[in-house]
Design brief:
Elements lengths: L4 H19 L3 H24 L1 H10 L2
Amino acid sequence: MKITTDLVAVGGLSIALIVGVVMGAPAELLTGIAGGLSGYLSKTAVNHFENPHEIAREKDEGK
């Protein structure tokens, strides 16, 4: 698996959201983190469905 900026951002936001919930962070902070996380996930989904041939080519080149 190739580590990309998006993967690092999603991982960091996911960890921040989980830790925030466990530690009782303010709702405004959790809402902001969740908004960023959903933005990155939707961006990735849109890229995947708009350019599936490029994603397949990248996987083939990685073999």
